[in-house]
Amino acid sequence: MTAARSTRDSQDSQVGQDADDFDVEEALALVKGTGARPAGGAGRGGGAGPGPPGLAPAAAPGARGANPGEGKPTRHRSTPWPEARAVAEQAARSLARHTPVSVPLEASLGLVLAAPLTALTDLPSFDTSAMDGWAVAGPGPWEVREDGVLAGHAEPERLGDGEAVRIATGARVPRDATAVLRSEHGRLDAKGRLHASAAQESSPTRSRGVLALAHGQDIRPRGQECRSGDQLLPPGSLVTPAVLGLAAAAGYDTLTVLPRPRAEVLVLGDELLTEGLPREGLIRDALGPMLPPWLRALGAEVVAVRRIGDDAKALQKAITGSRADLIVTTGGTAGGPVDHVHPTLRRIGAELLVDSVKVRPGHPMLLARTLENQHLVGLPGNPLAAVSGLLTLAEPLLRTLAGRTAPEPYTLPLGEAVQGHPYDTRLIPVSLRGERAAPLHYNGPAMLRGIAAADALAVVPPGGARAGQELDLIDLPWAVAGIDACFA
Q1: 211-225 residue pLDDT tens
Q2: Number of Cβ atoms within 10 Å of the Cβ of 75
Q3: Cis ω for the linkage preceding 361 (within 30 of 0)
Q4: Who contacts 70 (Cβ-Cβ below 8 Å, separation ≥6)?
Q5: Which CA distances in Å does 418 have to 22, 48, 324, 479?
Q6: DSSP string spanning 32-76?
Q7: Angle at 399 between CA 398 and CA 404, to 5 degrees
Q8: Cα–Cα distance list, 486 to 47, 241, 288, 298 (Å)
Q9: CA-to-CA distance for 306 and 318, rounded, in angstroms?
Q10: What is the pLDDT of residues 67-79, one digit of tens each?
Q11: What is residue 468's DSSP assignment?
């Protein structure tokens, strides 16, 4: 371990300081003017070492080799962070759209409408009472019928002038009723006749000394909300709980929606434990439990989670045998001796669209097209670096496949200054406190303590940001919609 990397590890462990999540060796190289990345990198841990020599993807943005005659290994250019997100979105747009499916209402939450939501009936479908009280005809006082009108009953008998009948909220209003008098606004005299209450008789709207109810008062007329055939929502609308209620009220039992894109997770690494405490050089797998629910929160259907280990043949078999729309791998994206993702993609003829991104943490992430309608996102092995890759590449791809619209960008000022990378974007966990974004500590590439307490990620430009500077924010899905809504 170099002295520079030892210094970085020490900084990561200090309480109350931002973790220095870029390679110190790279920064030193920049200061010295070499501009070259050090050999080796952090291997499967998500560091920034060079990719495997000789990898020449068909569509890697800006790919280039060494200058002729210099004898240096082939290097590629990392994709700028905003460009990488745009490439992922465009990759999904270039695919043939999935055939819309018809699903029961209860199964459509979180999906996107593939057809307009058109009213199948008038809403309400008949004149209904908006309040508990009496349906009345003409000016009072009124003779009250013995029977009442309840919700769900057939059409009641029509009212004659000067008649009233007890009525419940939502019940069908009798024909020729002119208004509904609320329970709290009416009183019965000794002969059982209905009068407007004294409090209401002070109203300037009076007739023959009693309250004159406005025609149609507290009656919801048929078609007040919509008429049969009206478009209630356009295609592309997200099915929320409120949309489910509207669809049910409008007469729908099923909805025509775009299906969820299917995702498969391949967890790589022989050093990973699935239970118990770390021991004998082995560590607990944090990504296996974390990625599937996160992908579901991004709109995917997770069809499988497979543990591959450090086995190149097993990795190739898993990729070529998958029928998911998106394959997500963890670790193995750098240039270490057991980093098999790049060689495997090369062997199967995959088209590399993004090969490393100018972002920290998460620099050695990648995006490849493995089949005509299938993509692979390679995440670094370090947990926070993997989150960075997930939100950089998987989120725009899945969102576009699912037909969801991009969230509106927004900014907030920083509560305190944040250190930046010399030339890369940096993503840091923040909590939202009032009108400011408070940076959270424990934000090194291998740390999850910061993101576990975060509401969003702040996008820090190269060079860092000062206190009070407005930064773009990426909301975490559960911080906006709530845990239950995200994973329904």
Answers
A1: 557 899 999 999 999
A2: 15
A3: yes
A4: none
A5: 14, 21, 39, 22
A6: HT--PPPSSTTGGGT--PPPPTT---TT-TT---PPTTS-PPP--
A7: 145
A8: 31, 12, 18, 8
A9: 8
A10: 333 333 445 689 9
A11: T
